[in-house]
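## retry 2 of 3
previous attempt timed out at serialization; input unchanged, resubmitting
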Amino acid sequence: MDELSGTKERIFDTFIEMVSVLGYENVTIREIAKSIDINAASIYYHYESKERILEHIYEYYSHHYFDTRIPVESMKTLVETANPEEFIFAIARNYVSDDEKKHMRMILITKIIYMRLFQDNTANTMFREHNANDYQYVSEILQHGIDVGRIQPDFDLEIFARVITGAMMAMGIEAFANPDYSVGLLDHEARVRSMLGRLFDSALL
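## retry succeeded, writing output
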């Protein structure tokens, strides 16, 4: 993946910020150049088109999507001892990073993907693939909980894994599909996690 530094990084971040607010179709190369006080030719030196900048942000997102997700082996240890709400919070953890710039990039790119979900095959494919991976991740952890005797053996882990990933997906769509949304947590996210925690608690031995 292309490295980000200097003018190219400024173009990349400005594009993300503008598109996440205005929408892809409403951002032009000229407006990006004006925003960072360079000429359009400087942008074309780094990116041959606006489409190429969008491709680059998708590449960045795919490359870094799992960077801060808790490793599955660590989650298997957690499911053996954690209380339900702690476990659900860990499952729902996204893009928690000490790197504030990277954190904000991932949040804003997520917003762009949700905004373009039904317009852009690449965004739609990434969305489906990442959700399928998230489902497999949760399922493997829950299966471990059954294997070690923490979770009831007749617990329907397939349905619960889909409920967890579906709830997170629904909140993501609600938050990010709206171009007017500002970065932050939904007011009811903590209540959703609490509800999932109670459902999970009912499955524990």
